[in-house]
Design a protein that fits this description.
The protein has about 70 residues and is an alpha+beta fold. The chain has helices at about 40, 50-60, 60-65; strands at about 5, 15-20, 25-30, 35-40. Helices cover about 30% and strands about 20% of the residues. The protein is globular, with a radius of gyration of 12 Å. The termini are far apart.
Length: about 70
Amino acid sequence: MALSDFYKQNESDEVWWTNDTEHVGRFLFSFDKKRVFNLFEDYPHELTQEQLETFNRENPYWVEFFKDRLS
């Protein structure tokens, strides 16, 4: 995936999203465009505390969706 494949939901966001054109239904994101996380496999256990706080602040829908994982 190329750096140009990354986009932000909102200009002020710190989370970059990218599309996985080889797999349907994969939600991929990054904080630095280097390490890419798979939302359904890596959230929240692979994120640092700072990354988790940033992600949760910027993505309330996913916080609610995965609320059982955060307990």
